[in-house]
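Weekly sync, protein design subgroup
Attendees: M.S., D.O., the rotation student, P.L. (late)

Item 1: inverse folding check
M.S. brought a backbone from last month's batch and wanted to see whether the design step gives back something sensible before we order anything. D.O. pointed out we never logged the input encoding, so this time it goes straight into the notes. Structure tokens as presented (83 positions):
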């Protein structure tokens, strides 16, 4: 989501971004990584698409790569989704 503000979004995406949603209209879910504004739904989607470690999630979404306070929750999401 942070990357979404590095460019001027097209008019149809502006309201979604201001409402805290992905430009595509999908919500990011509750925020798990506050450093990079990464939501639970984004993380679940990344896990479904093959990110099966905290490092892989960090490489794809940047979550867990700054202060690290979200890492325990990332591990919980990984464990729950892979069970
Ligand atoms: S909250 Fe995720 S790296 Fe800081």
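Designed sequence read out in the meeting:
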């Amino acid at each position: 989501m942070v990357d979404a503000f590095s460019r001027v979004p097209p008019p149809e995406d502006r309201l979604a971004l201001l409402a805290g949603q992905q430009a595509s209209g999908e919500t990011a879910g509750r925020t798990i990584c506050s450093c990079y504004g990464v939501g639970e739904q984004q993380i679940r989607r990344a896990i479904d698409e093959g990110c099966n470690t905290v490092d892989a999630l960090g490489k794809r979404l940047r979550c867990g790569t700054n202060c690290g306070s979200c890492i325990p929750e990332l591990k919980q999401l990984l464990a729950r989704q892979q069970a």
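Discussion: Helices lie at 11-18, 40-48, 54-61, 71-82. The CA atoms of residues 64 and 79 lie 16 Å apart.
Action: P.L. to compare against the previous round before Friday.
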